[in-house]
Amino acid sequence: MSRKRPGAAVLSALVAVVGCAVTLVVSVTLARREEAAAEVQMDRRTSAAADAVRTETRRYVDILRSTAAGAGGQEELTGPEFGMITQPLKTMRLAGANGIVLVVPAGDDDVAAVQERWRKLGMAGLVLDPKGHGDHAFVVTGTTLDDSRPTGGLDLAQAEAPASALDAARRSGQVAVSDSYHLLTDLALPAERRQNSFILASPVYRGSEQQFLGWVVLGVRGQNFMGDTFELAGQGLLDLTLSAAGTDRRELAVAELDAAGKGKRDLQRAVDIPVADKIWTLRVAANAAALPGVRSALPLAVIVGGLLLTGVLTSLVWVLATSRDRARVQVRTATAELRAGETASRRQAELLSAVLDGISDGVGVVGPDGKFLLHNPAAIRMLGRSDPNAGVEGWQDHYGLFLVDGVTPFATDEIPLVKALGGESSRDIEMLVRHPEHPDGRVISVSAQPIETSAGERGAVAVFHDITERKNVEIELRGFAGVVAHDLKSPLTSVRGYAELITDALDELEAGHDAAALAQARRGSEKVINGALRMQQLITELLDYAAARDATLRLNDVNLRSLVDDVVTARTDNPDGSTVRPDIFVGALPEVQADPVLLRQVIDNLVGNAIKYTPPGQAPRIDITGRAEPDGDVRVQIADRGIGIPDGEHALVFDSFHRASNGVGHPGTGLGLAICRRIVERHGGRIEAAPNPGGGTIFAFTLPATSLTASIPVGIV
User: Fold this and answer.
1) Do 107 and 134 contact (CB within 8 A), yes or no?
2) Cβ 472 vs Cβ 674: under 8 Å
């Protein structure tokens, strides 16, 4: 054994200090990156929660404005007419809403007169219940949107919060929101069941003179609103508090949702959200350790691995400095430890590869020669092809890159990755990818920036995001605006023109030309009514179209035969005023799992179309059958003998606002079959149309079967 060298202890200590310092720096850096990732994820989740509140409250404000405009547009608003205007709201699943009512003002001396007037306007049993003295605001009619009891006769002026909101709405002429309070209809409930709630109020004006009639008021229970609105945004990871400043500047809680579980709330956010005429504050708290993908064992692994490696190196230096023989033994031990470190590094590389393979956004990295060094699976799915193993000159042809117009080729020198190789970053550049593997084309958004390789050369990295669905929605919205502008303009023109004819006819009546003027007035009034019905149909189908997309699915086991029988009975008892009674056959139908309200709408639309698109004078013939499929779904088929659908248009009829070229003589908006497709696809099924041999059309759609139906062999049901 050789003598120890005098500097061995110092050298070993220096190696240990340097190794520990490097390990500490690396682990702290990783921990800070995880903290930054938690902050980014918290910002995204907070933004999603705030967007949910903005979207839902704006939706409520728009509904109130539309309802107030519809109420003010009536020549003489009655209770039943207000019920017809608000009836479609029952199917819209408004989160937390308990009812929408019409409120009218009255002074102490006017109560009896107002009560008598509204009894004559259809509310025969109305009893107004004034509270206190001065100005009152009575509920005279309305539509309940949950299981609440009717509130006719209630005086909203008795509570400060709704009274202030009504006053603000009347003064501003805009929708106003109240402070948080217990709804007057909830005061009869036990204290533990009462919720902090609020109302939205919109003034109602009539005629060009803007005569004030009252208010349309929507009551919303805060906790129910919070739970439904944040069901997806919170995902059980966030504590959410929605509050608003009251008239005394104190902050009042509208609703709270505690869902972040145990542990400290080390992430906090607050967002101001405009709601009608006020600003609400959304406060979000979360436990960073509970957020998915934020905390990992990597910093601890680095510390443990670094300390182990430092210990090994320190021991190795000590052994080399003290004894050649002992060094040989320690070298063998150190080699084994290093191999273990290599295994850990390989596992870390595998983890990074798994992360890149699992993310939904595409990632691509190219070297200075323009060849791809990395293409994750998401990028290959979006681009439709793997890299061409060629320079940038071949990218445009290989991937089929076009501007979003779908016609103009994307210039090679403007491609984001090409610009990044030149040192220029790009963000959110939109382009169309179309080639034989993507014949319909995909619209992607690309962000790219330059990077530097370990050899000091310049490369580039790009992130791809598929925005095809968003673009399709934008196109649909443009089509929606065009159809609404066209289909509402024509009946409005007719209403105005025939209203003027009625006025002229009445003038002639006064002049003594009774018979001819009376006939002209009747024809004009029929045109006005038909125009109003056309507008009402369009508005109703637009609301149904939105509900088919946004309404919450309430899945239950549904007796399909019973549901179809109800629809057939309703249609055959009053087949749209036709004297020819439909001949409808209903075969055996299995049970399905579906939302019964939305499924009824699909059946009713398809049966109604089969009746409507039948040649004049011919009795509609419809066969409704169903069977269990081998894959466990139920296939429902509705076959008719109507006018049919022209070749090449069987798939197009399910697009929004599309009407078959041979059906222009029949009234409609082109939304019925689009609503059917939305509802079926939301259930996980598919819908299609095909020619019926011998004439007519066969519509078929699939739905999930119940557990009982799925267990019955195919061919039995």
Assistant:
1) yes
2) no
Q: Tokens for 534, please give them.
A: 């056309």
Question: Tens digits of per-residue pLDDT, 171-201?
Answer: 999 999 988 888 887 777 887 778 888 999 9
- Neighbour tally for 593: CB within 10 Å: 19
Structure tokens at 161: 């919060």
**Which one-letter DSSP state was computed for residue 715?**
T
Give which of 112, 106, 110 is closest to 212, Cα–Cα: 106
**Strand pairing of 583-586 and 251-258?**
unpaired
Q: How does strand 621-628 pair with strand 633-640?
A: antiparallel
User: What is the full DSSP assignment across 624-670?
Assistant: EEEEE-TTSEEEEEEEE-SS---TT-TTGGGSTT---TT-TTS---S
Looking at residue 371, its pLDDT comes to 79
**To which H or E segment does residue 271 belong?**
strand 267-275
Amino acid at 431: M
CA 378 to chain centre: 24
* Distance of alpha carbon 590 from alpha carbon 588, whole angstroms: 7
Rg of the chain over all Cα atoms, to the nearest angstrom: 35
Q: Which amino acid is at 49?
A: A
Average predicted confidence (pLDDT) for the chain: 80
546-561 pLDDT tens trace: 556 666 788 999 999 9
Site of tokens 């009639």? 213
pLDDT digits (tens, 9 = 90+) for 632-690: 899 999 999 999 899 888 888 888 666 665 555 556 567 889 899 999 999 999 999 99
- Other beta carbons within 10 angstroms of residue 263's beta carbon come to 11
Cα 47 from Cα 44, distance rounded (Å): 5
Phi/psi of residue 695, nearest 5 degrees: 115, 145
Long-range contacts of 602-606 (CB under 8 A, 24+ apart): 602/675, 602/676, 602/679, 602/680, 602/701, 603/563, 603/564, 603/567, 603/638, 604/567, 604/570, 604/571, 605/672, 605/673, 605/675, 605/676, 606/638, 606/676, 606/699
Run of H or E including 206: strand 197-206
The residues near 636 (Cβ < 8 Å, ≥ 6 apart) are 560, 589, 592, 624, 625, 626, 700, 701, 702, 703
Q: Is the pLDDT of residue 311 over 60?
A: yes
Estimate the crossing angle of helix 324-358 against helix 298-322, to 10 degrees.
Answer: 160
Comparing 106-110, 411-415, 533-537, 597-601, the range with the smallest average pLDDT is 533-537
CA distance 288 to 267: 6
Identify the DSSP state of 467.
Answer: -
Token pair belonging to 354:
């798994």
Contact 260, 239 (CB under 8 A): yes
Phi, psi at 275, each rounded to 5°: -130, 105
Distances (CA, A) of 439 to 370, 435, 442, 475: 26, 5, 9, 19
Distance between CA 679 and CA 599 in Å, rounded? 7
How buried is 446 (Cβ within 10 angstroms: 0-12 exposed, 13-18 middle, 19+ buried)?
A: buried
Q: Across residues 522-541, what is the average pLDDT?
A: 64
- For residues 525 and 495, what is the distance between their CA atoms, to the nearest angstrom? 9
Q: How far apart are CA 14 and CA 349, in angstroms?
A: 30
Per-residue CA distances from 649 to 670, 689, 696, 705 (Å):
13, 9, 14, 30
Instruction: Residue 627: count other Cβ atoms within 10 Å of its Cβ.
Output: 16
pLDDT confidence of 531, banded at 50, 70, 90? low
**Vertex 471, ends 469 and 472: CA angle to 5°?**
65
At 557, the amino acid letter reads D
Residue 2: the pLDDT is 44
In this structure, are strands 583-586 and 362-366 parallel, antiparallel, or unpaired? Answer: unpaired
**Alpha-helical segments (H) within 153-208:** 160-172
* Residues written for the chain: 717
Dig out the tokens for 193 from the structure: 């069941």
